[in-house]
Amino acid sequence: xxxxxxxxxxxxxxxxxxxxxxxxxxxxxxxxxxxxxxxxxxxxxxxxxxxxxxxxxxxxxxxxxxxxxxxxxxxxxxxxxxxxxxxxxxxxxxxxxxxxxxxxxxxxxxxxxxxxxxxxxxxxxxxxxxxxxxxxxxxxxxxxxxxxxxxxxxxxxxxxxxxxxxxxxxxxxxxxxxxxxxxxxxxxxxxxxxxxxxxxxxxxxxxxxxxxxxxxxxxxxxxxxxxxxxxxxxxxxxxxxxxxxxxxxxxxxxxxxxxxxxxxxxxxxxxxxxxxxxxxxxxxxxxxxxxxxxxxxxxxxxxxxxxxxxxxxxxxxxxxxxxxxxxxxxxxxxxxxxxxxxxxxxxxxxxxxxxxxxxxx
Length: 361
Known about the structure:
Elements: H1 38-54, H2 58-64, E1 83-87, E2 93-99, E3 102-105, E4 107-110, E5 121-123, H3 129-142, E6 150-154, E7 163-168, E8 171-176, H4 182-193, E9 213-216, H5 223-242, H6 252-260, E10 270-277, E11 286-294, E12 297-303, E13 308-315, E14 329-334, E15 344-345, H7 346-359
Parallel strand pairs: 6-8
Antiparallel strand pairs: 1-2, 1-9, 2-3, 4-5, 4-7, 7-8, 10-13, 11-12, 11-14, 12-13, 14-15
Helix pairs in contact: 1-2, 1-5, 3-4, 5-6
């Protein structure tokens, strides 16, 4: 009977394989379904979402891609969460998101612009959103902004009695100062919002693509998830190479527990370096897993977006020493190359990169 290498449950009827590199960053190759059960696969997907949507790696993904499920199409490109943005030239604060390095404002009202003569400023990328926005705000004003689709955040960049209320993807975002209560802000918005004309914009959308902005990102910098995503990728690569024999590694139980607990267990097999390094001059469009044997020890490295500061040191089981290839083992991908339908091994990687460099020399 086939069993999941992470939890030990029966995988006989398993119908989906676990990705080596997560699909979120362009991964294509999957483990055989017998190695990881559907339950663990789905559980790990939640950790990947934290890592690549809200964690440290959300920044390179947001600027360089890829988009949803590794897509390179314009419609699926990666977006940041809604964040506070400030134009360098005017100092105007607004709500928006960043996609591929470009900022986009969302539909919003604000009383933040000191120089504007009216009480509020309306900004919209989509005029059809104004009416929906107004209806949603009117409902929330009657209920003191208590709704599951409402996000309320305090910001040090917003003064007392100032606010920004935005609307995007059926959610309302209220940003206010630490010193303002919901009640006081609600009363201000009621006063100002009565002046909103759904058919006439006070100010049309600013041309952000031609502007320099500063964004104040709010990341969930969970250090456990940071180490976890590297470890899960590394362990999946070991499973790809050795299959069931991965259990023979002395550190197998430690690594499995570390992945299963999302980084909240013994991590003595992990090596953390003081700075990032890039021995193959990888680009931000490249990911690499590298495994090098040194006698009876294996050293592993996982490069995401061309960089790493995480390594792994594990003992090589005697049973796996015989007949072992002495050259490094690798697993490589360039997620921007639409012709690359699978990841490449180490030798294939060297040939591919030499060929690509010769094209541009």
